[in-house]
User: Fold this.
Amino acid sequence: MKLGINIRNWGPHATPENLSACAQIADRSTLNSIWLNDHIGFPPPGWNNEFGLSGDMGAILDPLSVLTYLAGVTQRISLGTGVLIIPYRPKLLTAKWLATIQVLSNERMMMGIGPGWMAEEFTALGVDRSKRGKITDETLEFLHRAFDNESVVENGQELILKPRPKRPPFLIGGAPHIAIPRALRVGDGWIPVGILPEELKPLVESSTQQATDLGRPPLETVVMKTLPLENPAQAIEMATAYRDAGATHFVHTQDYSDASDYQKIVDQMTGVIQPAVT
Assistant:
């Protein structure tokens, strides 16, 4: 099982110095990936914050812009979005953004994808929230065409899209009854949300069988959770449980105060967790 870690592209952490320092710490380590969040902004106080998001997260940098920046200050580590909200962005420009990051990172991007949920952001964008699933499917299908062909036709106009690097893997986030079928159709893996190891195992087994029946490779399963690193035995137990349930990639998400604090977290991940699960 591969291991990754979040980098906070929001709040007080989101400065050029902190972002580059933390990314380089991860890049020098033996971890496999770093991951960013996606939002546009939060409404004024009093909105329905159903997931209890930190207020600091409203001060967020665009993840594609940050990945472009981090591509230039790292050499090895994979760069992920966890997750990019697809209906927020025009599909043609999204194809260009992804190709740009792939070129500048030497094809290190991992594209976690989601349909979004925050009604206020959809309203501000003028995007019909009820059509977010349809928009997500249409965009993913377009992105496949953009990376698979020399040219694409959009709004009746053919365009040659260059450069055309390797397509990043598409990892579909969301509830399993939606994310797994979408991933089997147009993705390479999925990102479970709020699923325990005992719940994950039958889902992985089922999706693997479905992939075999379709004649395609099995889905990558990327789990994003917070390990209790303050208790190494419990942290190992939790990571091992997800590995044994079929997770192929585990991303530890945790707050940190500065680059020095981030270094300590990375050291725990590589020194304690990685030997136990790889």
